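User: Reviewer 2 asked us to show a designed sequence for the structure in our supplementary figure. I'm pasting the structure tokens here. Could you produce the per-position amino acids so we can include them in the response letter?
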């Protein structure tokens, strides 16, 4: 009798298991799909709606015909664009161009811009005050690279755009973050909107901004602000929530009213974590400068874009490294300044205030530059370039290793990529969505399943299912390769603490390299097509895989490792049975971040001829199809949000062993 009760209880537990119910659901769904009507395998025309056309018509009407209180929206947006064009141009005049007089051939420079000697010296002085000698040396090397390689003038154009974009994004992000912190309802709305904005591809921001603000620096500014806004909003909310309750209570007891409490107590206490949002905003802004150059931003981004069009890998690499040098300077300076402010560090006795020191230096350096010409503008004869070397190296590789590269390309394309692409293209749409829903139900319950189903159905009804499956195929291959390469490197680094500092610097550099730079060598070696796209996406997405693998393995409790050693486990057994299970939540988050990076790069890879959603967005940008660009971008966001939700649910499940056993 006891055996019967145990068997009955086991059967009930098996039937109540979400995994069992999901498998049964998939079995029934598969039977219905293959034996049922054609519409379960091929999306019928009646199920697709002209959403893109509707959105495009609405936005075109709003931008060209709508009025608010009798004032045309077009006039207002153009006025805003002119205002910000004036601000950007003013900063560019100060940093890069100077003031010119005359017309035609009689144009002369009446007032020069601030010299490289003045600007670079001011940054080095600030670096020394904030971070000491080491930070000053790093900034001096990076800025020296820009000067010696002849990138200074365009770097200052980029810096002007970045400064205005970052300040605007930080201001808007801070306001939205404070508002969200004070109201849970507002936070729910802003969190959802920001999550979608983080997954919408870069190109999708260019289409509506072009429509509203026209071609030029201001359109690039607003596209950049929209792209860089989410991390500032998220980090502002998290930073304010992390302020200890006793700090807030102390401020209230001292009689602070809400505004004083915010500005005098909470924000200063949250400054260290706010700096994270500032840094991410700066990095995302710099990542946008190349794309923004397509609509008139100029600067180093345009240099990289021009090099890509000419297949000039040497010049593109130099300009890309210039963006990296600028990113390192801005990143390290902002981190050091925030760290100093957060820890209440002030100037030492006898030191001048920083603003006085910088003002004095700018006056001295400007006078010196007027006297000594090379201090104002680095002579072209003194400039250095490695472009010819890199171009010659690529030419040699193409000439000497053509057969090997071509064999690899054909094998990858014909034996792996096209069969997988054909499999996804032929997979019934109902079975794909059903499989995702079943997996979501197992990992996170029916609400997650409903959410993923909704995202999938949005792609279906918009008519972008075929390009979406092409995106899935490219992302799957790229992320798999990135994880297979990145995780072993991360595992190796986790056991070698001395190498982690150097590895961190290399990873930071890789993640600050402009996305288009990764396309240059891939296209030069493997021509345009899916193989080049996968190589570029894989290279770009490998850095987070390495980082999370290194962090996850380094955080495995020492007690578990010692227990495994006492039990006589080999290194391989320790890796499989101790390290991997302990690090699994972090590794899953690492896969999630790798996928997000791959999605952001996949849109850039559309420039080399892929046939995915990125190509749809790019076509919409080239043809000024506003609705198509936005809807295709939202489909990319749907795919990214599905992956994000599934992997976060898997990570949460991995951190709760008791729950897993119960299910």
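Assistant: Here is a per-position design you can include in the supplement:
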């Amino acid at each position: 009798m006891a055996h019967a009760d145990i068997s009955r209880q086991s059967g009930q537990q098996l039937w109540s298991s979400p995994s069992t119910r999901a498998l049964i659901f998939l079995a029934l769904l598969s039977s219905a799909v293959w034996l049922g009507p054609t519409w379960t395998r091929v999306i019928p025309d009646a199920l697709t709606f002209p959403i893109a056309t509707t959105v495009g018509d609405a936005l075109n009407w709003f931008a060209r015909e709508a009025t608010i209180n009798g004032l045309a929206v077009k006039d207002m947006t153009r006025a805003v664009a002119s205002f910000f064009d004036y601000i950007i141009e003013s900063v560019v005049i100060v940093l890069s161009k100077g003031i010119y007089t005359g017309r035609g051939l009689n144009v002369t420079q009446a007032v020069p811009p601030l010299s490289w000697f003045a600007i670079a010296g001011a940054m080095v002085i600030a670096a020394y005050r904030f971070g000491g000698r080491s930070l000053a040396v790093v900034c001096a090397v990076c800025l020296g690279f820009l000067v010696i390689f002849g990138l200074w003038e365009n770097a200052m154009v980029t810096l002007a755009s970045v400064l205005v974009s970052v300040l605007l994004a930080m201001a808007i992000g801070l306001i939205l973050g404070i508002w969200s912190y004070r109201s849970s309802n507002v936070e729910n709305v802003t969190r959802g909107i920001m999550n979608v904005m983080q997954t919408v591809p870069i190109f999708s921001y260019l289409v509506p901004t072009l429509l509203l603000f026209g071609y030029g620096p201001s359109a690039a500014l607003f596209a950049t602000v929209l792209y860089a806004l989410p991390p500032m909003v998220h980090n502002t909310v998290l930073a304010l929530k992390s302020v200890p309750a006793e700090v807030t209570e102390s401020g209230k007891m001292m009689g602070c009213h809400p505004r004083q409490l915010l500005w005098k107590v909470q924000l200063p206490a949250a400054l260290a974590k706010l700096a994270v949002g500032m840094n991410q905003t700066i990095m995302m802004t710099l990542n946008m400068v190349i794309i923004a150059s397509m609509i008139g931003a100029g600067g180093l981004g345009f240099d990289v874009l021009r090099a890509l069009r000419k297949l000039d890998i040497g010049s593109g690499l130099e300009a890309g490294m210039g963006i990296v040098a600028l990113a390192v300077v801005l990143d390290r300076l902002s981190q050091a300044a925030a760290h100093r402010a957060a820890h209440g560090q002030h100037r030492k006795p006898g030191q001048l205030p920083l603003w006085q020191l910088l003002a004095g230096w700018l006056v001295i350096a400007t006078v010196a530059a007027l006297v000594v010409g090379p201090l104002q503008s680095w002579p072209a004869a003194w400039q250095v370039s490695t472009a010819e070397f890199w171009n010659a190296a690529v030419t040699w590789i193409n000439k000497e290793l053509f057969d090997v590269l071509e064999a690899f390309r054909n094998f990858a394309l014909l034996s792996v990529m096209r069969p997988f692409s054909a499999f996804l293209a032929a997979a019934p749409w109902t079975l794909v969505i059903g499989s995702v829903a079943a997996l979501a139900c197992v990992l996170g319950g029916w609400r997650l399943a409903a959410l993923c189903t909704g995202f999938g159905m949005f792609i279906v009804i918009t008519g972008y299912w075929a390009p979406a499956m092409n995106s899935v195929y490219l992302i799957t291959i790229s992320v798999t390769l990135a994880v297979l390469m990145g995780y072993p490197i991360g595992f190796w680094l986790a056991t070698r603490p001395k190498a982690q500092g150097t590895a961190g610097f290399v990873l930071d550099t890789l993640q600050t390299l402009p996305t288009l730079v990764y396309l240059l060598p891939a296209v030069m070696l493997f021509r345009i097509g899916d193989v080049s796209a996968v190589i570029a996406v894989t290279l770009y997405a490998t850095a987070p895989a390495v980082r999370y693998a290194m962090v996850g393995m380094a955080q495995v409790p020492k007690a578990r490792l010692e227990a495994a050693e006492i039990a006589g486990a080999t290194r391989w057994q320790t890796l499989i049975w101790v390290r991997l299970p302990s690090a699994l939540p972090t590794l899953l988050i690492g896969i999630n971040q790798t996928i997000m990076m791959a999605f952001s790069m996949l849109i850039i890879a559309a420039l080399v001829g892929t046939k995915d959603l990125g190509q749809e967005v790019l076509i919409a940008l080239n043809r000024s199809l506003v609705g198509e660009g936005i809807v295709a971008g939202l489909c990319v966001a749907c795919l990214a949000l599905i992956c994000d939700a599934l992997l976060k649910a898997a990570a949460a499940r991995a951190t709760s062993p008791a729950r897993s056993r119960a299910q």
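For the response letter, you might also mention the following. Confidence is low (pLDDT under 50) at residues 9-15, 658-663. The first strand starts at residue 67 and ends at 68.
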